Fold this protein.
Amino acid sequence: MLKKALLTLFVLSVFGGSAWAETKIVFAVDATWPPMEFVDAQKNIVGFAIDFLNAAGKEAGFTPVFKNTAWDGIFAGLAAGKYDAISSSVSITEERKKAMDFSDPYFTVRQALIVAKTSAVKSLGDLKGKKVGGQIGTTGYFTIKAAEGVIPKSYDEIGLAMEDLNVGRIDAVVCDDPVAANYAILKYKDTLKIAAVIETGEVEYYGFAVKKGDKKTLDLLNKGIAAVKAKGIDVELNKKWIGQ
């Protein structure tokens, strides 16, 4: 027992009281939101936010563990303690802050309007009486519902909305601009385009959500976010996953 205690003291002295792999934070991820978080061809959860959290963990002393979780139950799962945090391109809003706490912002986002490449539409105002799709429970879908005369159509996944737009079942899609770019500039570059960036009058940020009052997890996340930004790692990740 004495040898074990001495060994423990030695390890703590070498690693400053903690080892990176010993502190785990389990993140729920709706991995259907490329390039921020999605499943690659090898069935791995990848993307900007995943790399960001791995880098933040190394800087702040935690190991992120990612759990693929459907969007429609992701907030309820956090409240029930099924995981420690959410990393799923969650925009920080006053309404959400009533139910959960947020880390410092890690990404600035705007809402983009995607239409068929042959469309003359230039704004949501041009779509009165038309069907516009968005992922339910997202700020993009809230933007659609707030638009006068537009017919909102909700989807469980943004990719399903893009597929319907691509074959003409709906007239437009509204979603976060990095996701819009992924679909309109890469996946459907020959058939879709970004018609406009929708100005809401407010700056929108992504944050990592944690259970209300979980200061320990929040402090670790904020420490990691600050370090990643200070070292310019976020800029490199932006180049890797989003480009222009």
Observations:
- Residues 1-21 have pLDDT under 50 and may be disordered.
- The chain has two domains: 2-108+205-241, 111-198.
- The domain at 2-108+205-241 is CATH 3.40.190.10 (D-Maltodextrin-Binding Protein; domain 2).
